[in-house]
């Protein structure tokens, strides 16, 4: 098959390209060209802000795979390439769902309203809804929409899924203590980028269409932290702080500076990481053991430099201060 990957030079896009090449497909990537594509793929340089960029793509494609979050890019691509591309796969997100407080919802759950303006990161879920609508309007049952949970694996430059295994491997304190959320009701729901890429390529090969929540089965954040600690070989103290303490000390949820990655306050986010992936499982989604993803992510973190400035989590200095405060409050 001849694949078009819109992007292909960053993390997930690169994994999609490698998965397709491993199955002996021809792969053309359209990207700005500031980074290389995986060896074996062809790069067509183009800026998707330019409506004429798609004219550089020649010939027909059996399928395209797009990961954009920008509605203008999604609309521009399907409008320009509808006659050249037979099937279209789009990587959306579980953030499109409107109700984060209700556990156990599937693909039929209500969505956020589609965003009608320019892309805004604060409207990420709404922008992805608008992208989905553009793809479905153009391709109908020839469209495949994947709504992944949080993506993990080596290469996670968001620093969310690498934070905990790295912190357990390299504690910030002299006695090896690590500060963690005491959140027995919180869940995590991850999917390894390599597993998502493999499923996308195989699904396109088989002509699968429809909308799928693509994630692993959810598990408690407590279990995830214990697994990350085990993989990292951490033997120091664990200092657990509850939600009230977290909020009083202004530790942000989920991501960003001075945050607890993957943690979300309860009960308002009780459903965010408890989506039902049964349809994707029935359509062939296979996910590796979470322990393997954590181990590979930690290895990647160690290769890229444990001391680098991070985009998510607590700085070592912040953590030391917070652990001291937690011990005073105990």
UniProtKB/TrEMBL annotation:
Boundaries of every NAD-dependent epimerase/dehydratase domain copy: 79-206
A GO term from the CC aspect: cytoplasm
Coiled-coil stretches: none
A molecular function GO annotation: aldehyde dehydrogenase (NAD+) activity
Pfam families tied to this protein: Epimerase
Domain of life: Bacteria
Protein known as: NAD-dependent epimerase/dehydratase family protein
